[in-house]
From TrEMBL:
Gene3D superfamilies: Pre-mRNA processing factor 4 domain (4.10.280.110), YVTN repeat-like/Quinoprotein amine dehydrogenase (2.130.10.10). CDD domains: WD40. It comes from Rozella allomycis (strain CSF55). Coiled coil: none annotated. This is U4/U6 small nuclear ribonucleoprotein Prp4 domain-containing protein. Residues 1-22 form the Pre-mRNA processing factor 4 (PRP4)-like domain. It holds the Pfam family WD40. Keywords: Repeat, Ribonucleoprotein, WD repeat.
């Protein structure tokens, strides 16, 4: 207040009276609680955002057009199904269940025999995926820092990809790999504990590009359904959105309080689902950069997440040994599958 605390010869009573006069002359005093509440009101009205690059704006424009056309086709197919009679629906389901029953019976009677087996690396195999358009091709990643591409069912090694300096924990094929995509293009993406995301072609054992940005282990890498973008989740509590052609980081998204482990894209390409060690799943609209739904229900780490082809169901697997099915229309968990006795690492 610009006044001395105590004057010469002034006692406690005189000091208190002088303080009252000073306060009265300066107007009303706002308490700390009132000041804090007014600050919160001001902050609530203020919109917070981070300015993104022009490339992100262009990507979101593309995603709007891409996702709307795919959503239109998906809804059209769903409407056609609603016009089918009950008899037709039962016939289709019977055919599907018959195939599943045959697969189940075959798997029961052939569990004692291995169809094929091969040593995939010097250390543990962390991930294994078939090419989306060609099931005769298989890719594996290993803790020895390599990725390998194999033929199926011969289990013959086609190429070993070397470039990571630490354990490789995740990989994914381009949606058009081994189909219409050139072998010289980025057909495969991988991420490792060195925090680097690598892009690979099919005719070189060295990476086409290294996507650097994560500061800790990369847990999951995934191609966007369009094939033009890549998503990656990391132990640095963020997930990132990359442009395949320019290798530019378009988006660094935060929102989880702990490590982000699981990541998956909606089949329309409009949404991204993430799950982390905070036991929370989040659904992001990547066309606008907002979290549109929070999936709360697991009591331990969420290790995997995936979208249903119908567009409105999401499934998550967790370290709490349960699988949960979520309805995006209702923003809630509609079913829990407590069938496992240990953690669930992958769901489809």
């Amino acid at each position: 207040m610009g006044e001395p605390i105590c004057l010469f010869g002034e006692g406690p009573f005189e000091r208190r009276e002088r303080l009252k006069q000073l306060v009265a002359s300066r107007g009303p005093v706002i308490s700390q609680e009132e000041y804090s509440s007014s600050e919160e009101e001001n902050n609530a009205d203020e919109e917070f955002y981070t300015v993104g690059p022009k490339e992100l704006y262009d990507a979101r424009k593309f995603l709007v057009d891409y996702s709307l056309s795919r959503a239109r086709d998906r809804l059209s197919h769903a409407r056609e199904k609603t016009k089918m009679s009950t008899t037709q629906l039962k016939t289709e389901r019977y055919k599907l269940y018959s195939k599943l029953e045959v697969i189940h019976i075959v798997s029961i009677y052939e569990t004692t025999e291995s169809f094929a087996s091969q040593v995939g690396g010097d250390r543990a195999i962390s991930c294994c995926k078939f090419a989306p358009r060609n099931s005769s091709i298989l890719a594996t990643s290993s803790w020895d820092g390599t990725c390998s591409i194999w033929t199926n069912p011969e289990c013959k090694l086609k190429i070993t990809l070397r470039g990571h300096k630490d354990r490789v924990g995740t990989l994914d094929f381009h949606p058009l790999s081994f189909d219409s995509l050139s072998e010289n293009a980025a057909n495969l993406v991988s991420g490792s504990s060195d925090g680097i995301v690598n892009l690979w072609s099919l005719n070189r054992n060295e990476p086409l590009a290294e996507l650097k940005g994560h500061t800790l282990r990369v847990a999951t890498t995934c191609f966007h359904p369009s094939g033009r973008y890549i998503g990656s989740s990391s132990f640095d509590t963020s997930w990132r959105f990359w442009d395949v052609e320019t290798q530019q980081e378009l988006l660094l998204q935060e929102g989880h309080s702990k490590e982000v482990f699981a990541l998956g894209f909606h089949p329309d390409g409009s949404l991204c689902g993430t799950g982390g060690f905070d036991s929370v799943g989040r659904i992001w609209d990547i066309r606008v950069g907002k979290s549109i739904s929070t999936l709360k229900g697991h009591v331990k780490d969420i290790l995997c997440i995936n979208f249903s082809p119908n567009g409105y169901h999401v499934i998550t697997g967790s370290d709490d040994n349960t699988i949960k099915v979520w309805d995006l229309r209702q923003h809630k968990n509609i079913y829990t599958i407590p069938a496992h006795t240990s953690l669930i690492s992958c769901v489809k």
